[in-house]
Amino acid sequence: MNNETLKGHLDFLLLSILSNGAAHGYAVIESLRQRSGGHFDLPEGTIYPALHRLEEQGLLKSRWDESSPRRRKVYSLTVKGQGSLTKRQAEWMAFSKAINATVGI
Amino acid sequence: MNAIASYLKSLERKMKKNGTFHPDTLTEIESHLLDSVEANLRRGLNQAEAEKEALLRFGSVNVVSSSFEKERITVMQKILIGVAVMAGLFSLYVDTRPNWDDTGVLAMGILFVCGLLALIGFQRPWLLALVVGAWIPLHGILFTHNYGSIIALIIAFIGAYAGWVVRTGFNRFRHSV
User: Fold this and answer.
1) Which domain holds residue B24?
2) Residues of chain B positioned with their CB less than 8 A from the CB of A29
3) A40 touches chain B (CB under 8 A)
4) Same domain, residue pair B160 and B84
């Protein structure tokens, strides 16, 4: 998939992945790659600014996990983030349904 | 110095330059890269190959630092638009005071505010000029049929584009050295 197209949906994808539970950046990116069958393959470093922005917007919260040998920043959805995800899911369902109906899939 | 340490040093320099550096961000990126190297080692790559692959997947210093910069600009733009609207409304308030003979000061104020905001980083000079300079002509034309008040908008455009030209010229110079 074209990277610019993917960037337009990045927030939705990140919120969806984190709806399965808290995760650190590396795990989020691995999950994004695996769940998309390798289609979503942005430079990994460009995901972090998006995670930080979602945190600034109050859609994600983070804490530092000190239990592993390395300090890791772990992200999770906030209540506001869950609400935003639900809204985006509904919008996506309506949008994809309309596209499918139009192109006859 | 290994490839990861060297990369982190370059990224730190670049992020300090564009104002996006935070020690926690670098710690987070280092942790990511070390996770990635470990995963590559488990796949059978040697240390040098594992580091190279991890850095390749992460993106170049320029790509990563500019994506942090773009996110910062988005937040900054909202703040700057807020400041510009306040400045525009304040200029209208000053202009509508009946006993204040302030045309010259007001014109210089609009010029200065537009120039300064464009210089700081307001991305679209035309939008900046409209947000700051449109209030006085709108009020003048709608309420007193004073078409001469359009000069405020022209001054705002001059200030905004002057600031924008200086900023883009400075950025080009900075990237060329």
Assistant:
1) 3-59
2) 32
3) no
4) yes
* ipTM for this model: 0.88
Place of tokens 């070390």: B34
pTM score over 0.80: no
Tell me if B46 is assigned to some domain.
Answer: yes
Same domain, B52 and B122: no
CB contact under 8 A, A48 and B68: yes
One domain, residues B75 and B49 = no
Q: Which long-range contacts (CB under 8 A, 24 or more apart) does A67-70 make?
A: A70/B31, A70/B34, A70/B35
Is B64 domain-assigned? no
Longest dimension (CA), chain A: 52
State the total domains in chain B.
Answer: 2
Same domain, B103 and B153: yes
Give the CATH architecture of domain A3-103. Orthogonal Bundle (1.10)
- A7-62, pLDDT tens digit by residue? 678 999 999 999 999 999 999 999 999 998 888 878 999 999 999 999 988 999 99
B34 interface with A at CB cutoff 8 Å: yes
Q: How far apart are the first and last CA of chain B?
A: 25
CB B164: neighbour CB atoms within 10 A? 23
What are the pLDDT tens digits along chain B (177 aa)? 589 999 999 999 998 887 788 889 999 999 999 999 999 999 999 999 999 999 999 999 999 999 988 877 667 778 888 899 999 999 888 888 877 667 788 888 999 999 999 988 777 889 899 999 999 999 989 988 888 889 999 999 999 999 989 988 886 676 565
- In terms of domains, do B74 and B123 share one? yes
**H or E stretch including A24?**
strand A23-24
Is B28 within 8 Å of A25 when comparing Cβ atoms?
yes
Tokens of B33: 């890269």
